[in-house]
Design a protein that fits this description.
The chain is built from 6 helices and 8 strands. By secondary structure, it is α+β, with helices and mostly antiparallel strands. Helix 1 packs across helix 2 and helix 2 packs across helix 4 (114-135). The protein folds into 2 domains: 7-167, no CATH class; 180-283, no CATH class. The radius of gyration is 26 Å and the shape is elongated. It has an 8-stranded antiparallel β-barrel with strand order 1-2-3-4-5-6-7-8. The longest helix has 35 residues, at 51-85.
């Protein structure tokens, strides 16, 4: 038989569901990031020292979302169900969630475009609907059931994703493996800058871009030009291939190789080390 549940109990269920949704989304993102041409930078890792901090932040965010969004959705859907149907009905929950997030979708459409806003609005509606529906369940042991089945869902997703990558069912991205001769020629950054690698090891830079950090970690962008030398560091591991340039006016870190066979790029990380941007060169046709 069902029983009335307190808002505190519902908030705990909501926080648990939101946590499981976040972990599941992380698993999906890890698998997805291995399949296209990813950004291989991994400056932030979930080490033992960061996990307690992330759990605290996650608990605070989960509590805020639960009390400000999920529980009001549950309450309003029950009110509307009784007002217009004589009893609370589950299908009011997604309607209320969608209506509540509509202003957010409208605001996002102004900056990201209608299709992107629509996609995120639907995703947000689904993420809000799931905990709200589970909060409506009025029976004992719902918290334990959600924890059990949610954990199994996360583990299943991780197992399937890992197996798909390991067996090659889902192709894992690897940078193209190049030879030194393939690098010879002119590479451009799309903004007027170019780097020309000669077969004899000479390099010339025209309109190159430099990036430096000041004491406040603000990025200062400059321009450089000059001549020097270059070397190619080949490697069996495609990720370890590097192109080194020695140009006095351009204090550049090594270039890494990325892109695809159809469009090879050289890239290096610039800006804040904790959240870098990528400066790319593509070979001129």
């Amino acid at each position: 038989m069902g029983q009335e549940r307190s808002y505190g109990d519902m908030a705990l269920v909501s926080m648990l569901v939101l946590f499981l949704e976040a972990v599941l989304a992380l698993v999906v993102e890890v698998v997805r990031a291995e399949t296209p041409v990813p950004n291989p930078w991994s400056g932030f890792t979930l080490g033992p020292l960061t996990l307690p901090f992330l759990l605290v932040v996650g608990a605070v965010v989960g509590a805020a979302v639960s009390w400000l969004l999920v529980l009001p959705t549950v309450w309003l859907s029950d009110v509307l169900g009784r007002r217009f149907g004589g009893r609370a009905a589950w299908w009011w929950v997604p309607l209320v969630a969608a209506a509540g997030l509509a202003p957010v979708g409208g605001y996002a459409a102004m900056g990201a475009g209608p299709l992107t806003a629509l996609r995120w609005w639907l995703v947000g509606t689904a993420l809000l609907t799931v905990p709200a529906l589970l909060c409506r369940v009025r029976r004992r042991g719902v918290f334990g059931s959600v924890a059990l089945w949610g954990t199994l869902a996360v583990l299943s997703a991780a197992t399937v994703g890992g197996a798909a990558l390991h067996t090659g069912l889902v192709e894992r991205y690897r940078p193209p493996v190049l030879t030194r001769d393939a690098l010879v020629g002119t590479w451009t950054d799309g903004g007027g800058g170019s780097v020309t690698f000669a077969a004899d090891g000479a390099v010339s830079v025209s309109g190159g871009t430099t990036h430096s950090l000041d004491a406040d970690f603000a990025v200062s962008v400059g321009e450089c030009a000059g001549a020097g030398t270059w070397t190619f560091e080949a490697a069996r591991d495609a990720w370890a291939q590097k192109v080194h340039t020695a140009v006095e006016a351009c204090a550049w870190d090594p270039w890494y190789i990325g892109g695809t066979r159809a469009r090879v790029v050289l890239y290096r990380y610039v800006g804040d080390p904790d959240s870098p941007d990528v400066y790319e060169l593509a070979k001129a046709p």
